[in-house]
Specification:
It comes from Bombilactobacillus folatiphilus. By secondary structure, this protein is mainly alpha-helical. It contains five helices and no strands.
Length: 115
């Protein structure tokens, strides 16, 4: 059991999961602590920051030749965290689709290292 935990912590997937959780939860909480308005908070954290993160994930998936299921890591974690925080929100489902599209677009536009 301990070897599996160490193996997971050393995997690249753990870094993605932790980065997604930090950026999806902590950045909006920090913005609300600094009294940033809700529109700016949603716009900056969910649109700008997470779209950049999705593009980086798509690039990383292609560059390191990860399996295709890794496209779902960011959208699924985002959806779970947003639904836990905001309960039901229509924009969460739209952003999940948008993140998947941005990841796949970055995946398609990334050249292989051997090219």
């Amino acid at each position: 059991m301990k070897k599996n935990i160490v193996k997971f912590w050393n995997s690249p997937y753990c870094k993605i999961i932790l980065l997604t959780i930090v950026l999806t939860m902590l950045v909006p909480l920090m913005m609300s602590a600094f009294k940033v308005g809700k529109a700016w908070r949603v716009g900056l954290s969910f649109l700008v920051l997470n779209l950049c993160l999705a593009a980086l994930f798509g690039h990383w998936i292609k560059k390191t030749q990860q399996p295709k299921w890794t496209f779902g890591i960011l959208p699924v974690i985002f959806l779970v965290l947003v639904l836990l925080r905001y309960l039901t929100s229509f924009y969460a489902y739209l952003l999940v689709v948008l993140y998947l599209l941005v990841e796949y677009l970055a995946f398609l536009l990334t050249h292989k290292l051997s090219d």
